[in-house]
């Protein structure tokens, strides 16, 4: 199988300072390299502060990497800007941790879902139909298109966020703690939805599932990467990693949960 | 989620919230209509004047208020009511124009600074600091002095000292919104920066800015009238409330109605626009909104 997303030696150093002097440095991600295969679901776990969100932001080019390369579909997208970058976003989408904050409070959910469709040249009337279809596909009714983010529950909002992310049929879906802000029953529903999407899309959808819950990753992912202090400390299938953790940190992480 | 955290800081009982919101709505409608009437009057002022405001008729000069001339006449026999009405066009219109100019420029500069950051931000903000550091009316006096009198120059002078306030608000609001998740989501949706700024950012920051500009209408009207009063704004015979007051001040003891008429007009419009501004501020408070 070929990789759809390939990350090579990504490093991100946050520098704080003024007048050209650096006062403090935080290395949020160091030498991160991995591949996401076509149709695969790759888990990325690690305690909070281990650099998972930074990794997601680097991959989606929301922040610039200090070093390293990102290859999407074989193309080096590192440092892309403007129109080119917007083209890349047609292949790569993201679901954020806090669903309510990820929609513009002054616009309807339908507007949010339709934005990428309209930006990629879909006609307004057609986009409207598509939005309804997407909502139904994600387990919501068509009326949700007219609702505002503060009018729906967290779970419903996250469903809409997933609908938005899959609207333009991306090849790569990055879920940054997409279920962490939700309560356990809703979490299960969202996982079920993601599972259904994976099943329907087959090899057309690859997921990078960022999470700090090792049990959830075990249920959902084909492979898992463990991060600690911005570095990969272990990788393998979830069962391998959980049954026989090689790294000391992973052992602690697992022991703290089980 | 934001709403609950904001409400938990200073809890306002739901019932009181609702009552306040209802009265706010009523006030909004009432003051909105009053302000609207003022603006409409100023637009159609030409047709509302009972007499020609510029026609001099010395035979009826200095007539006190009476049934024929409600506000009396001035020393040239011009009808004061008509002059006040026609003066509304200059006073209200130039005020609205001034406020629109400073709102748009200030917001644009603030958004650019907040969004772009870096050197451009530093430079523009230092410039705005310079303007902020001057005592407002003194600077306006200096500018009007250098450029010469006249309504246009008065507007330019006041605009020059008033935009930084808007730039400050817009900048801090932009900085607060810049890192929000929904803007990142919009970036991922493939929207261009311009589109993101106009579609998502500005609608989310414009509330406090509009409130400020509503409250500024009253202030600016006073300052324009003040400059005109000092002879640096509208020039006689052009009917403008400030210059009309200035014109008549020497006769205040003998012909008090000449001063009273434009003074009352300024008082009334400033009050209406200030009350409207206050109401809009209450209405825009997120805790007052029906969520
Ligand atoms: N914008 C930023 N500026 C400075 N430091 C940051 C920034 N974002 C994240 N960090 C730091 O990078 C590290 C990793 O953060 P993050 O990627 O959010 O971790 P995680 O998502 O795994 O909880 C943390 O130590 C955090 O303080
Ligand atoms: Mg995180």
Describe this structure in words.
The complex is a heterodimer of chains A (258) and B (291). Chain A is an alpha/beta fold. Chain A has helices at 52-59, 82-88, 109-119, 124-137, 154-166, 184-201, 214-220, 238-243, 248-257; strands at 3-18, 21-37, 41-45, 67-72, 75-76, 92-95, 172-176, 206-211, 223-228, 231-236. Chain A has a domain at 101-169. In chain A, strand 9 and strand 10 form a beta hairpin. With 291 residues, chain B is an all-alpha fold. Chain B has one domain: Orthogonal Bundle (MetI-like fold), CATH 1.10.3720.10. Chain B is built from eleven helices and no strands. In chain B, helix 2 packs across helix 4 (80-116) and helix 4 (80-116) packs antiparallel against helix 5. Chain B is globular. The interface between A and B is medium-sized, with 29 and 20 residues. Adenosine-5'-diphosphate binds at residues 14, 26, 28, 46, 48-54 of chain A. Magnesium ion (MG) binds next to helix 1 of chain A.
SSE layout:
The complex is a heterodimer of chains A (258) and B (291).
Chain A: E1 3-18, E2 21-37, E3 41-45, H1 52-59, E4 67-72, E5 75-76, H2 82-88, E6 92-95, H3 109-119, H4 124-137, H5 154-166, E7 172-176, H6 184-201, E8 206-211, H7 214-220, E9 223-228, E10 231-236, H8 238-243, H9 248-257
Parallel strand pairs in A: 3-8, 3-9, 6-7, 7-8
Antiparallel strand pairs in A: 1-2, 1-4, 4-5, 9-10
Helix pairs in contact in A: 3-4, 3-5, 4-5, 5-6
Chain B: H1 2-9, H2 14-43, H3 45-48, H4 80-116, H5 118-133, H6 136-147, H7 151-178, H8 181-188, H9 193-229, H10 241-248, H11 256-284
Helix pairs in contact in B: 2-4, 2-11, 4-5, 4-7, 4-9, 4-11, 5-7, 6-7, 7-9, 9-10, 9-11, 10-11
């Amino acid at each position: 199988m070929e990789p759809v997303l390939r990350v090579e030696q990504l490093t991100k150093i946050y520098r704080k300072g003024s007048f050209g002097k650096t006062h403090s440095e935080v290395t949020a991600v160091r030498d991160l390299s991995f591949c996401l295969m076509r149709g695969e679901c790759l888990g990325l776990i690690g305690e909070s502060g281990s650099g998972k969100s930074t990794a997601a932001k680097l991959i989606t080019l929301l922040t610039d990497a200090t070093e390293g390369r990102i290859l999407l579909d074989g193309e080096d997208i590192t440092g892309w800007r403007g129109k080119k970058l917007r083209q890349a976003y047609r292949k790569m989408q993201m679901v954020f941790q806090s669903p309510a904050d990820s929609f513009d409070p002054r616009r309807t959910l339908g507007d949010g879902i339709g934005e990428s469709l309209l930006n990629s040249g879909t006609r307004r009337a057609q986009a409207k139909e598509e939005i309804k279809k997407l909502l139904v596909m994600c387990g919501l009714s068509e009326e949700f298109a007219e609702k505002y983010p503060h009018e729906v529950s967290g779970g419903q909002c996250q469903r809409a966020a997933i609908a938005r992310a899959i609207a333009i049929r991306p090849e790569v879906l990055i879920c940054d703690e997409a279920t962490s802000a939700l309560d356990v029953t809703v979490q299960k529903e969202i996982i079920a939805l993601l599972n259904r999407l994976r099943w329907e899309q087959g090899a057309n959808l690859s997921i990078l599932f960022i999470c700090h819950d090792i049990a959830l990753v075990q249920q959902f992912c084909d492979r898992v990467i463990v991060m600690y202090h911005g570095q990969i400390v272990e990788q393998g299938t979830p069962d391998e990693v959980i049954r026989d953790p090689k790294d000391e940190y992973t052992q602690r992480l697992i022991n703290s949960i089980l | 989620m934001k709403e609950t955290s904001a409400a938990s800081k200073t809890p306002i009982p739901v019932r009181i919230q609702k009552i306040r919101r209802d009265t706010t709505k009523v006030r909004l409608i009432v003051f909105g209509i009053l302000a609207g009437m003022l603006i409409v009057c100023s637009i159609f002022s030409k047709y509302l004047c009972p007499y020609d405001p510029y026609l001099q008729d010395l035979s009826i000069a200095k007539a006190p208020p009476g049934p024929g001339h409600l506000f009396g006449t001035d020393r040239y026999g011009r009808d004061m009511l008509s002059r006040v009405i026609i003066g509304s066009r200059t006073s209200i219109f130039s005020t609205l124009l001034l406020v629109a100019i400073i709102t748009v420029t200030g917001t644009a500069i603030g958004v650019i600074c907040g969004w772009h950051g870096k050197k451009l931000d530093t430079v523009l903000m230092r410039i705005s600091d310079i303007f902020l550091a001057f005592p407002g009316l003194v600077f306006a006096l200096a500018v009007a002095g250098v450029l010469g009198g006249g309504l246009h120059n008065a507007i330019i002078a006041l605009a020059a000292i008033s935009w930084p306030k808007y730039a400050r608000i817009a900048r801090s609001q932009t900085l607060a919104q810049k890192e929000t998740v929904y803007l990142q989501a919009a970036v991922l949706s493939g929207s261009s920066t311009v589109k993101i700024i106009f579609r998502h950012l500005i609608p989310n920051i414009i509330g406090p800015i509009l409130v400020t500009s509503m409250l500024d209408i009253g202030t600016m009207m006073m300052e324009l009238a003040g400059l005109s009063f000092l002879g640096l704004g509208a020039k006689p015979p052009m009917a403008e409330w400030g210059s009309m007051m200035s014109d008549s001040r020497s006769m205040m003891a003998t012909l008090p109605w000449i001063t009273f008429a434009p003074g009352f007009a300024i008082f009334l419009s400033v009050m209406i626009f200030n009350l409207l501004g206050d109401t809009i501020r209450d209405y825009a408070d997120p805790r007052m909104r029906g969520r």
